[in-house]
Amino acid sequence: MKNKTIIYFMVILFLGIGLIGAWGYKTLYYDEKQSTSENIDGFLKENNYMQNVSTKEIVMDTTTDEYFAKVTFKDEPNNEYEIYQTGSNHFKIVGYKDGVQITNKKEGKYIKR
């Protein structure tokens, strides 16, 4: 009888830990990633950039634990842009060509600081 009680307790304990872990993952990572993706999509649509997007990938910056988007546009396939949400409705776009940051607006027309 005592062994069954211990087994039931352990099963309930492990299920509880698993449920708390799944809830924590969803709350801390999944929801934040979805929210960032939706906000960046809204920014791209608002600025009429969405039709020019070739690829978009949501990535986590491990140094700041924040999500951002890596985007390439159809009309600038050699440039890669990183779009950061810096406020509730503010975005920063940084462009790179061959791994070097683009500072000239003529080389990267989507740069916005």
From TrEMBL:
Source species: Exiguobacterium sibiricum (strain DSM 17290 / CCUG 55495 / CIP 109462 / JCM 13490 / 255-15)
UniProt keyword list: Membrane, Plasmid, Transmembrane, Transmembrane helix
Protein name as it appears in the record: DUF3139 domain-containing protein
Spans traversing the lipid bilayer: 6-25
Transmembrane helix among keywords: yes
Top-level taxon of origin: Bacteria
Lineage: Bacteria, Bacillati, Bacillota, Bacilli, Bacillales
Database matches in InterPro entries: DUF3139
